Amino acid sequence: MTAIAWLEDLIPRYRNSGMADDAARVEQTIRQRAAQAQGEMKSIGVPLEASQEEIDRWVAQFAEGPLRQVLFRLAMSFLIKEGATKDSLRAMCKEAPLLSLMPSSVMGLGGFTTATVGSIEGDLDGRALQHAATLFSWRAFWLHFALDRIKEHYALNADGLIEMIQECPSFALERLSLLRDGVVAWLSNDPVKAIHLLIPQIEAALRDLLAALGGAVMVPDPDVGGFKAIGLGQVLNHPLFVDKVPKDIRFHLRVLYNDPRGINLRNELAHGLVRPELLNMGLANWVIHTVLLVGMLRVTKAE
After folding, report:
1. How is residue 171 annotated by DSSP?
2. How does 101-137 read in b/e, with b if 16+ C-beta sit within 10 Å?
3. Inter-residue contact 286 to 256 (CB < 8 Å)
4. Do the beta carbons of residue 266 and residue 232 sit within 8 Å?
5. CA distances from 32 to 26, 36, 37, 40, 282 (A)
6. Where do the domains of the chain lie?
7. What is the rounded average pLDDT of the residues 271-281?
8. Which residues are CB-contacts of 184 (< 8 A; sequence separation ≥ 6)?
9. Which of 25, 48, 115, 300 is deepest in the core (most CB within 10 A)?
10. Nearest Cα to 266, choosing from 198, 211, 165?
11. What is the C-alpha separation between 187 and 29, in angstroms, rounded?
12. pLDDT exceeding 70 applies to what percent of the chain?
């Protein structure tokens, strides 16, 4: 890991000096050391203890009332909120002052640093994104039980779920077949297929939402002389989207899909960088949660 840190500093120096071959040589060296660097990392786990009685009592709330109301409750209950995440970090400053001061780096596929995060005091936003990624992992356990209870109690099927989702105008009718295939894959415990099908539909729905808000979602493509749709990052950072969509929803989406300090699922999936072991039912549940979350959003016209 120390060797990689030193080598990474050389790449921009070589590139700025026009020494492309030397930059490529350093990149190859880093890739050769990637497996060794991964082996130097240690996993830290904290056991979660909960009795079956406690679990049953908690998930009971997701079997009370009409299905539409229950799904709304689930979508809001599992929203990772920016303010609460930052409050958790500030509390950590008191309990683990040394850890709160230490910067960290995020290592991606191939051994390269994909992001750096500073101290809590100096980089609260970056640390919040990083901490929120951990919260997704911690809460996946509870989301799994909540969704299982809903599927069992309401005999949830693809047609019933799609019927509610299609009421959201952001999910275009011409793309509902793909959305349905993704839901069927999720119900069939096929997380790889579900994730690959549903994430592009989520991105398209958010882009259509921005267009409905009055934002421009097509930009000129000088390479081919036409127009191309903007990507998820541009959607989430568009001034209209920032102004009209609640900040906690934007924070949640950014951590899960579009920031290397978070999970960054959309970008890593799109560029072939995602680790296969991440494409499990725990992550597929979070993608379904996003479908429900986006399905709640509506554009209201000012009178």
Report:
1. S
2. eeebebbbeebbebbebebbeebeebbbbbbbbebbe
3. yes
4. yes
5. 10, 8, 10, 14, 31
6. 53-295
7. 90
8. 158
9. 115
10. 198
11. 43
12. 99
